[in-house]
Design goal:
Elements: E1 6-8, H1 33-43, E2 47-57, E3 64-75, E4 81-85, E5 93-102, E6 109-115, E7 124-129, E8 153-159, E9 168-179, E10 185-188, E11 200-202, E12 208-213, E13 232-235, H2 240-244, H3 251-254, E14 259-260, E15 263-267, H4 270-276, E16 284-289, H5 294-298, E17 305-309, E18 312-313, H6 322-332, E19 337-344, E20 347-354, E21 356-357, E22 367-370, E23 375-379, H7 382-388, E24 397-402, H8 407-410, E25 418-422, E26 425-426, H9 430-443, E27 448-454, E28 457-463
Antiparallel strand pairs: 1-9, 2-3, 2-5, 3-4, 4-7, 5-6, 6-7, 8-9, 8-11, 9-10, 10-13, 11-12, 12-13, 14-21, 15-16, 16-17, 17-18, 17-19, 19-20, 22-23, 23-24, 24-25, 25-26, 25-27, 27-28
Length: 468
């Protein structure tokens, strides 16, 4: 019988240097109150509270909204490395103003936190506590073997809500499924409160074997993840390397470029294969070819079915299996000729394709903040062009933010508008926009016409600055 109990334990503990040994589990398949209390006393010092500002951007409009939020953090090294859930950052959200609250009650202490580069292969994030030089923190130690059995009970420790003073709480669940591919995945049998996402997981033998996680959904930028929407156990071997060698901001430039093919794709389902008269062996169906991409240069067409990429068979029949193709493309490398086998109108073909580096995305695009008129603009990127269905001949900069009460705001400008001309000066790049603004400020005209594109329409916004 599954245990599904939520136990709020109000035990205030001091910071300890490590995790004390816990008594053995007293009941088969469950956890005794004494065992839970002992584990909570040992683990409470390594759980911290992350307070931060989430900046959420709309890809369609470029507008950014800020909101204060929080997350459970787990101290995983004595020098202040903290691991938390991966939703702290996604393609549409970035954290800032991070504060790390360590300890409880009279022992509570708050630190600044620095966000580190997010790993590509597991949905967790890392934060570095900015402590005093040489300051040491209590930390969790994970078992090297994170194996769990079907039906095995697990114990988790998380943080209760604000109305309960963020007290440390305990929660028990069971492993309801073990999925072996594409990597071993342990599914939890029921939903969990938000304060337990990222919580340490203890198995029936009293070992800390991993953390609770949720994979990113495709809409959140999680094309590498395939089990979104259900709580999972991320076993320690999946993230141990990042604790040993933490990701840092310095690794951004050292990373290898991400390869890009330039297609939108879907799986060859059995129904689709039957409709087209193709073998029901799966594959990658090309639904869109991006103009100017490596795929277009290689002659790939809409409706082609890729059956092999660089010698690896493509057998996708479900949406979740397309991520294998995406990951393979990203990791293949830039500049090498890649053999591709495909079906076109049922006929087998062999082509070669040379992948290029992935274009800069909207998230990483160059940005310029203009204070006089109250505009923040960003360079047009390939993903924004695809999203807004912009033709190549449309050149300009996209408005990301409009300062409230500014001249641009009073003229009715809004995020998502594409500036094509500022005053009398054409704009195709950030540099040209900055130069145009400087020339207008030197001339100080009574009115500044700004020619823009909004959706499928073009027109003027008339800025009327008060230069005095």
């Amino acid at each position: 019988m599954r245990t599904n109990s939520l136990v709020a334990l109000w035990i205030v503990t001091g910071l300890a240097a490590g995790l004390a040994a816990a008594p053995a589990v007293e009941e088969a398949g469950a956890f005794s109150p004494a065992f839970i209390a002992s584990q909570q006393k040992a683990i409470a010092p390594v759980i911290c509270l992350l307070n931060f500002t989430a900046e959420v951007e709309s890809q369609r409009t470029g507008e950014t909204q800020k909101r204060s939020t929080r997350a459970l953090g787990l101290i995983v090294s004595p020098d202040g490395l903290v691991m938390t859930h991966g939703h702290m950052q996604s393609d549409k959200s970035d954290p800032s103003n991070i504060r790390v609250v360590v300890g409880e009650g009279e022992d509570e202490k708050e630190y600044d936190g620095v966000f580190l580069k997010k790993p590509d292969d597991i949905n967790v994030c890392f934060v570095r506590i900015q402590g005093e030089p040489g300051e040491r923190f209590p930390c969790v130690t994970f078992a090297s073997d994170g194996h769990l059995g079907l039906g095995e009970h697990i114990l988790m420790f998380g943080i209760m809500g604000e109305t309960l003073d963020f007290a440390r709480g305990a929660l028990t669940r069971a492993i309801s499924a073990v999925i072996e591919k594409p990597r071993t995945t342990y599914c939890i049998d029921d939903a969990i409160p938000f304060g337990y996402v990222g919580a340490p997981v203890i198995d029936s033998r009293g070992r800390i074997v991993g953390v609770v996680g949720y994979d990113l959904a495709p809409a959140e930028g999680g094309e590498l993840y395939v089990r979104s929407g259900h709580p999972l156990v991320y076993q320690a071997p999946l993230f141990a390397k990042y604790i040993q060698n933490p990701p840092t901001e310095d690794t951004l430039e050292a990373d290898q470029p991400i390869a890009w093919i330039g297609v939108f794709s879907q799986p060859l389902t059995d129904d689709l294969a039957e409709y087209w008269g193709l073998p029901k062996k799966g594959g990658v169906v090309i639904s869109t070819v991006v103009e100017g991409s490596p795929a277009e240069a290689a002659g790939i067409q809409r409706g082609d079915v890729i059956t092999s990429f660089d010698g690896t068979p493509m057998r996708a029949k479900k949406n979740s299996e397309i991520v294998g193709f995406t990951k393979l493309v990203r990791e293949t490398g830039v500049g090498r000729e890649i053999p591709v086998k495909l079906l076109r109108n049922g006929q087998a073909m062999d082509i070669t394709i040379v992948l290029t580096e992935r274009p800069v995305s909207a998230k990483d695009a160059e940005e310029f903040v203009e204070d006089t008129f109250g505009l923040t603009v960003r360079a047009l990127t390939t993903d924004v062009r695809i999203l807004l269905n912009l033709p190549d001949e449309t050149q300009g900069v996209i408005v990301r933010r409009v300062k409230s009460g500014s001249w641009a705001h009073l003229a009715g400008m809004r995020p998502g508008v594409i500036i094509l001309r500022f005053g009398e000066y054409p704009v195709t790049t950030i540099a040209e926009f900055e130069a145009a603004v400087n020339k207008v400020k030197e001339a100080r005209p009574a009115e500044v016409p700004v020619f823009c594109r909004a959706g499928a329409r073009t027109g003027f916004f008339r800025l009327q600055p008060r230069w005095e």
